Amino acid sequence: MPRCCAATLPQLGLLLLCAAWLLPGLIGHAPWKGGDGEHFMHLWLLLQNGIAPQTVAATPPLYYWMASATAWLTSPLLTLADGARLASGVFVALALFFTAR
Question: Which of 7, 17, 56, 99 has the highest count of CB atoms within 10 angstroms of its CB?
Answer without folding.
Answer: 56
